[in-house]
Amino acid sequence: MTVTGHSLVRRARPSECGEVLRLLFRRADLSSLAVRRQVEAFASFAESQKLSLDLQWLIERNGRASAACMLICSPGRCGTVLLSDAVEAADHAGAASALTELVSTARQRHLRLVQALLEMDFAGTELLAGAGFARVGELQYMERPIGGVARHRPAAGLTWVTYERQRHATFARVIEASYEGSLDCPALTGVRQIGEVIEAHKAAGVFEPNGWLLLMCEGQPVGVLLLSSVIYRPAMEIVYMGLIRRARGRGLGHVLVQRAVAEAQQRGVGALMLAVDAGNTPARRIYTANGFDTTTERQVWLHVLDRSRSA
Q: Which of 53, 72, 75, 119 has its CA 20 to 30 A from that of 222?
């Protein structure tokens, strides 16, 4: 428990999780009903993904909880921060103290990085900056409906290989090679070990080996497509796709996306989803050309806690 100015900062008890979530999703432009629905949707998502919600902090003033923050630890030594929007001026010191405790806890949990994915008009960014976070870009969340019958036919010389344990090293090598010169979240390049990256990708949804694919050109791996089923709705997600440098500019990005669409059609889901760096213009053009539309945008704030590359 910490007293800062007029605010008191303390770890929330498990029984207070509902109150914490209400404070995290409360916004001036949302009705109490809309907030309740968002809380219920997030709680359902967290349960489906088996996310632990035990790292929560409350900021109290005059005996009343006025703001909150939360740290969610994920596989791959990555954490996600949730923070109340539009923290009142009287609670800024308390919120800053809570974020300091949160970052300290992330270090104790040996996280390599902590991220915050915020609404574009989020009002509390100066608090994150004060806690050591930096804005590194924006994400566009895109989606396309799925219908019809899969008719994917790879071009001559192109084949696909699915993930198996004995191919793990090849997948790792191609994923890492695809980062070279990539415009997709370049601030993350080189921060994590490739094993941590793969661990995070596997935890992004429902990991199914036959949804992880290598694109082979004349017998050599040139690209990777990682798909997962979404638990909370009938959809699939492109968790990651990438091409090695020498394979770019040959239309193979369209081949990767079209295979993803065919997989979604084959499984009978209603939508295919993805998130892309807003600065990655070539990738966004490919997605748009293949029927994806932007549904929302988020600003990305990052705090790298450990840049060590040792095992």
A: 75
Q: What is the pTM of this model?
A: 0.90
Rounded distance between C-alpha atoms, residue 277 and residue 50, angstroms: 27
Domain boundaries, the chain: 2-132, 143-297
Same fold, 2-132 and 143-297: yes
Contact 56, 12 (CB under 8 A): yes
As given in the structure block, the two tokens for residue 152 are 């994917």
Residuewise pLDDT in 10s, the chain (311 residues):
565 656 789 999 999 999 999 999 998 788 889 899 989 888 888 887 788 899 999 999 888 999 999 999 999 999 999 999 988 888 999 999 999 999 999 999 999 999 999 999 998 999 999 999 999 999 999 999 998 665 666 677 899 999 999 999 999 999 999 999 888 888 887 888 999 999 999 988 889 999 999 999 989 999 999 999 988 789 999 999 999 999 999 999 999 999 999 999 999 999 999 999 999 999 999 999 999 999 999 999 999 999 875 44
Q: Which fold has domain 2-132?
A: Aminopeptidase (3.40.630)
Q: Is 257 left (phi over 0), alpha (psi -120 to 50) or beta?
A: alpha
